[in-house]
Amino acid sequence: MQYKKVTHVLFDLDGLLIDSEKLYTEAFETVCAKYGKTFTWEIKSTLLGFQGYECADKIIETLNLPLTRDEFMDECQKVYEKIFVNVQLMPGAQKLVDHLHSKGVPIALATSSSENSIEMKMQNHKSFLKHFHHLTMGSSDPEVTKGKPDPIIFLVCASRFPDKPKPENCLVFEDAVNGVKAACAANMQVVAVPDPRIDKEQLRNATLVLNSLEEFKPELFGLPSYD
Ligand SMILES: [Mg+2]
Fold this sequence. Notes:
- By secondary structure, this protein is α/β, with parallel strands linked by helices.
- The chain folds into two domains: about 10-20 and about 85-220, Rossmann fold; about 20-85, Orthogonal Bundle (DNA polymerase, domain 1), CATH 1.10.150.
- Helices cover about 35% and strands about 10% of the residues.
- The protein is built from nine helices and six strands.
- The protein has a six-stranded parallel β-sheet, sandwiched between helices.
- Helix 1 (about 20-35) crosses helix 4 (about 70-85) and helix 3 (about 50-65) packs across helix 4.
- The chain is globular, with a radius of gyration of 17 Å.
- The two termini are about 20 Å apart.
- The structure holds magnesium ion (MG).
- Magnesium ion binds near residues 12, 14, 15, 49 and 179.
- Magnesium ion binds near residues 14, 175 and 179.
């Protein structure tokens, strides 16, 4: 078999389960435009998978914005609070998460976001989050000492299942290049569902690359198939 059997599944959140990356882009564009700067896809593509303060630093430096990290993040926060109420699940996310949960496959969230950010983004998706055994939220978790592409978030996340699965028994779902690198560094198989603008060459280490979660076939990794 091309793929190894897994027992546990770890999910990234932004851009993978929820369509939030375009909202982050909208917020960054809004704040940068206030200072006469243009936030482009070229900049955006370097930010995927990083923690909030790392993104702020990169944007400020790249565009030479006259703001401190905290000032930039505060301005973005004001925009987020307006637009994140309406964040949608990505196609296939509900079906896959419901399916794995109903079949008793242990699933968890491994996101670089903070607890406050999750609270804001998932305010209308609380029942969806209840399907996850636990949520590992990198930006507010003292054990997650580095952002992706460091593997620590996935290793910490896996260690919090009661039966502590080995990395090779975990499957990761990611949309970002840095997330794929982090999963590979953790010695986990990884299904990439990237933004179509991402250069596929950067995802060459992914176990499988899909256009949508809707295309995923759980049985390829020894998980229960859809009925
Ligand atoms: Mg992501």
